[in-house]
Amino acid sequence: MAIRQMLRRSLTSERRSASSGTDVPKGCMAVYIGESEKKRFVIPVSYLNHPSFQELLYQGEEEFGFHHPMGGLTIPCSQDLFSDVISGLSRT
What we know:
This protein is an alpha+beta fold and 92 residues long. The protein is 48% helix and 16% strand. The protein is globular, with a radius of gyration of 12 Å.
């Protein structure tokens, strides 16, 4: 249930961002990754179903709750770890 709530809030924020000129392709969403300096990644929403990505979402929930300071989903992991997880998902 928590993942759905995070996604719903993030998608609402993404719609606001899209209307202000930030483009996110249909079927994708933006996430902000980093422990101190955040970097924006655009990922397919299908990644939300993968257990390895869900673990990253739980980390974000523990750190930020449902208040995401960047306006989208914020995940407090290293960009290298995130890239490793995403590259594994893109091969499946």
